[in-house]
Each structure stands twice: as structure tokens, then as C-alpha cells.
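In this section we walk through a basic example: taking a raw amino acid sequence and producing a predicted 3D structure, encoded as C-alpha cells. The instruction is simple. Fold the sequence below.
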Amino acid sequence: MTVNAEKSNGGLNWFVTGLFIVAQLAGGVMACSTSIMLGKCWLILQRRWPAIYKDNHCREPYPEICMRALGPRFK
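The resulting C-alpha cell sequence is shown next.
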């Protein structure tokens, strides 16, 4: 009984699979670091302007962060 082992030209090899895994990990790290930075920015707003941001619910926090960082022209 003989087994015919033909080499496939399609599919993923180990190198490409490793690249996909590394890219997924890098994307996850970027998403986590971005969310941490945005959270820290929001905490800075709450510390500097407690009357506006501490007790009130803000429906659009990203434009508020941008306005306080760059001015009302960029809101």
C-alpha cells in the first residue's frame, strides 16, 4: 500500500500563519492602548472641570475631549 503525498500549492504555510497571529496580537495591543489613553483623557477632564464632567452624564465624550484639548474650533 503506497501513500501519494502531493505538495499543495494553495493554503497557508507556517510563516504566513505566524504573520497572521502576530498581526492579530498587534491589533489587540493597539486597541487596548488606545482605550487606556482615552480613559486617561476623560479622567483628566473630570479632574480639571469637576462641575461639568464629574456628576453629569456626557453623551459625546470624544468631541468634549477634542474641544478641551484643541479649542472650540475643532469641536
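Looking at the output, two observations stand out. Residues 20-74 form one domain. The helical segments are 14-48, 50-53, 61-70. In the next section we compare this with other chains.
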